[in-house]
Amino acid sequence: MKDHYSFLTPFYNRLTKLVFGDQLMLAKTCFSENLAGEKVLIIGGGDGLDYQVFKDQLAGEYWEISRSMLQKAEANLKESRLSFRLGYFQAEKEKVFDEVWLHFVLDTMLDEEIISLLGEIRNSIKPDGRIYLADFFAPKNAIQRGLHRSMITFFRIVVNHKRASIPDYEEILLSQEWTKNSEKEFLKGWVKAQIWRL
Ligand SMILES: C[S@@+](CC[C@H](N)C(=O)[O-])C[C@H]1O[C@@H](n2cnc3c(N)ncnc32)[C@H](O)[C@@H]1O
């Protein structure tokens, strides 16, 4: 599997902090208050640096398709009880999770990939399980629109990003019978953190 992120991995986190400060980290962590006893599935978690605050409480699985990101995450979260897996997540019999974290990963996928991933998640989540989504939504003003266009162009060139638009996460999740329970907005609503249940 080609690692499209290998060039970006060493400075990905610093770059996002330079552009967005702590806002993306806050969107990723705002709902994660009580992780003790929770079995977490993290898909496309990147270098895992923003999860270090609760590394001692993290248990479950961490899936990445970038080898370089996965290696960094393994080093950054070595005190956790996560197992680190390279590749595309697939449901496994009798393996179920309380929480699934999808942080800034769905915006890199085509609609049909998102639908297929949601199917795997449905087969891997407890009846009261939750998806924690954090991602970019429609930009709210001209500056955000300009920045968003530049980001998409940058990611299409540097990491072979397949999309030129933002997925309609809500339409897709609703069509797959997920229900939104909570939402917090960051950067005037350009970034949202949401909790979804079946
Ligand atoms: C834009 S980066 C975001 C990384 C991290 N979640 C963050 O917020 O800093 C997207 C990450 O998702 C990973 N990724 C993309 N599609 C994936 C998939 N289907 N399964 C697992 N990881 C995936 C990429 O390798 C990359 O590390």
Automatic annotation (TrEMBL):
- UniProt entry keywords in alphabetical sequence: Methyltransferase, Transferase
Q: What is this protein called?
A: Methyltransferase domain-containing protein
Write down the Gene3D superfamilies for this protein, in alphabetical order: Vaccinia Virus protein VP39 (3.40.50.150)
Give residue ranges for domain Methyltransferase type.
43-132
Q: Which organism is it from?
A: Algoriphagus winogradskyi
- Methyltransferase: is it a keyword of this entry? yes
According to the lineage, what is the superkingdom?
Answer: Bacteria
Q: Per its UniProt record, what InterPro entries does this chain match?
A: Methyltransf_11, SAM-dependent_MTases_sf
Coiled-coil boundaries: none
List the GO molecular function terms: methyltransferase activity
Task: Tell me the Gene Ontology biological-process terms attached to this UniProt entry.
Answer: methylation
